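Sanity check

After download, print the first record. It should look like this:
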Amino acid sequence: MKSAICTLFEGNYHYGVAALSNSLHNAGFRGTIYAGHRGALPRWAGRAEPTEAPPWHGSRSMSLGNGVEIMFLPLVTNYHLTNYKPDFMLALLDGPARGIDALYYLDPDICVTARWRCFEDWIGCGVALCEDVNSPLPENHPRRVGWRRYYAGHGLRLRYKSSVYVNGGLVGVAAADRRFLETWKQTMDLMGQEIGSLSLALTANSAYRSTGFADCFDRTDQDALNAALEASPLVASIIGQEAMGFKPGLALVPHALGGGKPWVRSYLRAALNGVAPRLADRAFWMNVSAPLAPFNRTTRLLKRLDIMAAAAIGRFFSRA
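Expected structure tokens:
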């Protein structure tokens, strides 16, 4: 199977892209990682050279060795990047990634900890998705009813399938199932009309205001993604909260949700406040050495000591 990965980043999220790319390489992925970005490339991408990737102007690529390439694709959009995911994936399938068998979107605050073969097996079961920490949402939860009412008013019928509410950080789609991405784009575009602009998202730096019945669109890309699941006839294969490390079990893609991303987090300080290092934090710092090294050796060593000390404190002191 010929697979490709994509992610989106700006600002200091480039550290997450480096760790994600390393984790994919180390997990056995072989292929191209498409990194859509706003702003200048980070210093660790200095070896990237101009490439012919029609129809993407300004693309640059660099090899990570062993058949893995990262291609940087500059973006021209006013969308908040979390709302740009289906557009980006469709543009890749119609452009640089044309001809692949499967495309996986991964957020840049995720690392892959399972062997890549697991993901290729997974996508053979349906659209690959992970359960969110805020799941479940029963059939008549106000959020689901809000989606149903809103989209029905725009000629799109939603059919309840499951109480599981999925996370927008991982979406894996076989090229043959691109219709799911088209449906997700449709639910996203219609949602944009309701919230005012797809440049808005529920983040600390956003001017976003909750809107719709029972604030049913205050998670933007995720709400539109879950609505797309109900609007699409395609089968989804959903792994539970353990996949992203939200509960005990086999973690495939530990996800550093919320503020305090691994590259800025002070673990000792957090531990003294009763918050132990997360699985996602450990996965990040285990994947910043090779093939890409976004931090120098001293920084990596100090941060690992920070995590060890914080973990030791966490064994005796935790927030109630």
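If your output differs, re-run the checksum step. Summary of this record's structure: The CA atoms of residues 147 and 153 lie 10 Å apart.
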